[in-house]
Amino acid sequence: MGPPKFETLMPLLASFALFTMLLVIIPQGANPAYASTLEAQALLKWKCGLQNQNQSTSSLSTWIIPPQNATKSNATTVSPCRWYGILCNRARSVIRINLTSSNIKGTLNEFPFPSLPCIAYINLYTNELFGHIPPQVGLLTNLTYLDLSFNQLFRIIPPEIGELTKLKVLDLAFNELNGSIPDEIGQLSLLNVFALYSNQLNGYLPSSLDNLSSLTRLSISENSFSKSIPLEMGNLTNLEEIYMVSNSLTGPIPLTFCKLMKLTKFHASHNELFGCIPPQVGLLTNLTYLDLSFNRLFGIIPREIGELTKLKVLDLAFNELNGCIPNEIGQLSLLNMFALYSNQLSGSLPSSLGNLSNLAWLSISNNSFSGSIPLEIGNLTNLEKIYMSANFLTGPFPPTFGKLMKLTELHVFHNELIGSMPPELGNLKFLHKLFLCYNNLTGLIPSTLGNLTELTHFFLQGNQLSSNIPNELGNLRAMMQLQLSLNQLTGPIPPSFGNIPDVIGNLHSLIGLNLSHNHLIGSIPPTLGNLANLEWLDLSSNNLCGRIPRELGNLTFLGYLNLSENQLTGRIPQDKQLSTFTSDSFCGNLDLYGTPLQNTSHNYAQPHNSTTKYANWLDKRVVGIGYVFGIVIGITIAYISWEIGRPRWLWRKLRIEIKGAKWMKAIKYHGSQ
Fold first, then answer.
1. What is the 3-state secondary structure (H, E, C) of 22-53?
2. Residue 32 banded pLDDT, cuts 50, 70, 90
3. Neighbours of 73 (CB within 10 A)
4. Is pLDDT at 655 greater than 70 in this prediction?
5. Axis crossing angle, helix 648-668 with helix 617-644, rounded to the nearest 10
6. Are strands 94-98 and 121-123 parallel, antiparallel or unpaired?
């Protein structure tokens, strides 16, 4: 064969020249190693701007250029792919940064947003990042996951975040962000999770939220969002969980929410929502958690709520609901918590409550319920806590309550219950708190209550109980507060109240004992001096006689003592703790003398002084503190009224706090008659 012709070589020469030209003009960025090096250098620049990250013990200690590369000609070639928290693709480009709980402190000002074109995942949860979120975050157009929660970031949410159109998870919770939600957030049509809770955000919820058609979880609790919930949110038919707790949202619950057929949890408590609970709520048959407490909802509880058969928590407390509990509530057999306290509900309690076989928590206090307590409640053997106080419940206490073996708290005070206490209450071995005070109970205190060895608080004052205090109460070794005042109890104080618990066990944990305003006789047992943790003791207004035991001086924690209005005699012991009390603790005992009483001899009778009988140390401090807080709260309310003209939420909360404080003061310290 002869040499190739020139015409044949021309195409080959042209191809070779083109290939050489491409090698020259193609940028080095197309080289994977070079691209990886650029990303590494950009990340190192951010690291240098952080605090405490140049130490060998820091979480970013692997973010370095290896020493062997530092002296070679190719020292600029370094990959971050083996660094802590970094994941790369096959082209050695960073696609994932996960630095959760890494003790990173600093800002995002130098974060290499422009240098990470392939990154899809950033998780900086629980660090100490501060400053603002740079608008350059919008350059990360491949990002699907962004979690900056639990930091100290502040200022606004940049509208550029709307450029992250591939984003599926956006979590900015637990920061100090302020301003409003930018309208551009509606461009994130692929977003599944949107979390902003616990910030300082305000303003209204933008209607552009209705464009988030893929959203399954929305969490905006603990901010200051105001105005009404957008009707357009009813179009987010993929929503499964909504959290709007602790904002200033107003207006009614949107009727459009009936279209959210996938909704399982709706938390909207502690807002200013008003209007009725729409009957259409019964269409949300997948709901397991419904919390509308601490709002201004009124009207009746719709019977359609009985259609929510998957419901486990129903909390409608602290509203202005009226009417009765619908019988249909008994259809919620999976219900675990049912709270209606502090409403304006009335009528009798439906026997259908006995169908709530999974119920663990029942709270209906501070309403106007009347009639007897249904015997069927005794069938709810999973009940752990019952709150029925401050109603108008009548009739006898149901003996069927003795079957509630898991019960730990029973609050039925401030009602109109009659009859005797059922001995079956002694079966409740896990009971910690028993509040039956301020009813019309009569008869004996059952000796079976001595079986309640876990009992810490036992309040029976303000009834008409009679006869002796059973010795078996001395078995209650866990008892901390015992209130039996304002009854018609007779007989002596059981010596077992003060016995050292080496054999039968008794009240060695007691911090408060009130037996005042009864008809107790006999002497004060010296063994009360063994109650080493006792802080207050009230035996006033009985018929106790004899001398004050010197052993009471051993009660070094005793801060309140009232032995007034008895028939005690002799000199007041002056040693140890007894010498710290004023005459108010001893007045009204005609044959009692010595300091601090004015008379120093038994020849001088102590005059009756009813005006100072209850002016004790605690009352003075409570009144003083009450005045101070009253002034502060008054000024605060006046200021809020002047500034925003809408303090009704504060009044409502304040009203229940005041009422609760009055109850607790009446429970612990009976006051004057």
1. HHHHCCHHHCHHHHHHHHHHHHHHHHHCCECC
2. low
3. 7
4. no
5. 170
6. parallel
What domain range is 652 assigned to?
624-668
Please count the other Cβ atoms lying within 10 Å of the Cβ belonging to residue 422.
17
C-alpha dist (Å) from residue 264 to 125, 233, 308, 664 = 26, 15, 10, 37
**Between vectors from CA 507 to CA 502 and to CA 512, what angle results, nearest 5°?**
155
614 pLDDT higher than 70 = no
Across 464-492, average pLDDT: 91
Q: Are 326 and 349 in contact (CB under 8 A)?
A: no
pLDDT tens string 348-390: 999 999 999 999 999 999 999 999 999 999 999 999 999 999 9
375 shares its domain with 510: no
Structural tokens at position 569? 């005699």
DSSP-derived letter for residue 134 is -
369 within domain boundaries: yes
pLDDT at 661 over 90: no
Q: Is residue 183 part of a domain?
A: no
Q: Is the pTM of this model over 0.85?
A: no
- Final residue of a domain: which of 503, 536, 571? 571
- Which tokens belong to 249? 């949202």
Same structural domain for residues 413 and 552? yes
Q: Are 586 and 597 in contact (CB under 8 A)?
A: yes
The share of the chain scoring above pLDDT 90, in percent, equals: 70
Specify whether the CB–CB gap between 427 and 403 falls below 8 A. yes
Residues 478 and 333 in one domain: no
Domain match, 659 and 516 both: no
